[in-house]
Write a structure and sequence with these properties.
Helix content is about 30%, strand content about 30%.
Amino acid sequence: MFNEFRKFETTLAGRPLVVETGKMAQLAGGSCLIRYGETEVLCTATMADKPREGVDFFPMSVDFEEKLYSVGKIPGSFQRREGKASEKATLCSRVIDRPVRPLFPKDMRNDVGVVATVMSVDPDCLPEITAMIGVSVALSISAIPWAGPISGVSVGLVDGKFVINPTAAERERSEMAATVASTADLVAMIEAGANEVPNDVMYDAIMFAHAENQKIVEFIKGIQAEIGKEKIEVPSMDPSPEMFEAVKEFAIEDVKVALDTDDKRIRDERLLPIYDAVHAKFDEVYPDDIAKIDDCMYKLQKYIVRRWLLDEGKRVDGRGINDMRPLDAQIDLLSRVHGSGMFTRGQTQVLTVTTLGTVGEAQALDGIDEEESKRYIHHYNFPSYSVGETKPSRGPGRREIGHGALAERALVPVIPSVEEFPYTIRLVSEVLSSNGSTSQASICGSTLSLMAAGVPIKAPVAGISCGLVTEGDRFMTMVDIQGLEDFFGDMDFKVAGTKAGITAIQMDLKVHGLTPAIIKEALEKTYDARCKILDEVMLPCISEPRAELSKYAPKMLSTKIDPEKIGDVIGKQGKVIQKICAECNCKIDIEDDGSVFISSTDIDDANRALNMIETIVNDPEEGSIYKGVVTRLMSFGAFVEIAPGREGMVHISHLDVKRTEKVEDVVNVGDEIIVMVLPTDDQGRLNLSRRNALIAVEGLTPENEIDDTPRKPRRDFGKGPRRDKRN
C-alpha cells in the first residue's frame, strides 16, 4: 500500500499544498514530493539497520539541497555543477534539523539521513518551509521511530497585520521574518529576524503561526494514518539503571564538589581524578560496558545540575537565577584595522573586527533565492583553543556558519543603507574563549566594533540567551546560561535586539516544545538583560558611532548619474574610467541604476574623481574654473580636456591677458592650464577661456580688450616634400 501512488491536498495561506507519495524514491525509508504553489521539493528519510558503534550521540544529518535548475540557472562554477552547500542551504538544513531532532528517542544511535532536494522554486512559496513540512511527512510515514509530526510556517508583519507565508512582494514590506515550527501542542522552534519589533508583537506573531501549524499537523496525521508504516523499535544505548545508580552512589558527593565553581578550568581539573576513580572501580564490574561508564558520569553531572536548579534555585557558579556573569567591553584593541571591539561575559570572550570596503566588494551569491549579493557580511570563527582543546582548523562548519548568520541577522536592521553609508561591511567574530553564549557575545562585540569603526548604525544591539529546565509541568528559566547549563538544560533561547525591540531570535531545544508561558517569560527576561548590558557595559565603553573613519579605512564618495550617461563615464573600451582611476588613485564602481561609488585612501583624490565624473555627465556651469590639459593646437585656438573624455575649445583671443598672435607662443600640447567656462555657442559646444581664469584666479589685468570678431583660419604654407636631387 505504501508504494502505491497517493495524492493528498490541502491549502496553506490560500495556496495549494499537495503531497504525493509512491511515485519517487521508493527505496528510501519514507519519501514524498511536496508541492506548495509551484515550489516542489523531494523529501526523503532513511535509517541504518544497526546502531553506529562507538558514538555517544544521535547521528542524524539533514541536508537541504539547492538545485539551480529549480530557478532556471546554470551554476557559475568552473565545472558548471552544484558543489559544496551554500551558506543559505546550510542554514535551511539547521532550521529543519532543530525541530525534528528532539522528537527522536534520546538513546537512539542508528544513523538517520534526511534529504530535501529543491526541484522547483516559486518565489511566493519559500522552499525551506515547503521542505520542513515535506520532511515531517517523510518521517511520519516511514518506520523510523519519531514522535512527530511537526509543521512549520513563516510569519510576516505587513502593514501592521500578521501574514502567514508572505509572498515575495509582501516579504519586501514586512517588518519581520519569523519561522515557527510546532508539534500538535507545543512550539518546537523559532528563528526570527525583525526591525526592532516589541516583545508583545513578537509573542503574538509566534502564537499566530503556532495556530496555523496545528492545521498542517492534523493534515499530516491524516496521511500517516492512511499510509504510514508501523514504527520499529531500536535498541537502547543508554547504560542500565542499575549501572547508573551504582556510579551515582559512588561518586555523587565528589562530583558536586567538582561542579561547584565559576571557573571551567578548575571544574575540569577536579573532574579528572573522579573519572579515574570511577573507572578503577567499575571497569572490572562492567567489562563489556566500559564505554558506558563515561555516559553514567555525564548523566550524573546532568542530574546534579538540574536538581540544583529545580530544587534549590542554585547555579553552578553561585549566581542568582536572573544574574549575569561579570561583563566587560573594550574597543580599539588592534592598531591597523578599521574597527575592533571585544566583549567578555564570564569566561566567554569574543573579539570582532570591522573591515570597510568598496561597494564592488559585496559578496556575490549563487543560490536559488532572489538575493544576488550582500554588502554586509558577518563571519564567525570558533578555534579549538577557545575551549582548551587542540585540533586542526578545517574551515567553518555548520555551527560556525549558523552563529555567523545569527549575528548578521541581528545587526542587519541597524546597518545604514548604501545611500547613507556607501561601503561593503565585513565583520569577523573571533571566539577567544568559550563557556556558553558565544553567538550572543559576538553580537555585543560586533556593535562595539561597528561604532568604533565609525559605521553610523541606527541603534546599538545586544544579545543574551535564556535557559530552561523542565520536569513534568514544572519549569524554570535562567538568564545568561554558561556551558554546563546549555549541555544539561532543555533550551537555549537566544534573543538579540535594541532597547526598542527584537532584531533576531534563535531557539534550540532538547525537549519536544515550549508552552506559551515559557516563551513569554523568556522574552521578558532577555529584554531586561540586554537593556542592562547596553546601559551598564557597552554604552559606557562607546556611547555612539565615531564621527570619523579610521585613517586606514578607504574614503568613499557617492553620486547618482543619468543611466544613459554611464557609457560616457566608462568610455570606449573603459578608457575614460581607467584614466580617472589612474589619475586620482581611486577605485570606481558604477551600478546599472546610475549609482556611482568612488573609494580612495585620500579624500582629496576621491573628490577630484567625483568632480571629473560630474563634469563628464553634466554641462559645466558658466563661470566655473577647471584645471585642464591641452590636447590639440589649431591656428584659431587650443582644445583643452577638463575631464577625461570632456574637451572644450579656448579661442586664440582667450588664451592670454595680452594679445596672442600665435597659439604656440602661449601653450603646447600636454600643458596644464586653468580655464573658465564660457557660455555655450549655438551648437552647444563647450567654450573655455584661459584669459578669464587668469584674471579671476591670479588677479592679472588685461592689456587690451578682446576682439571677438571671427577670424579666418590662417593657412600654414609648408615647404612641401623634399626632393632628392640625385633623381
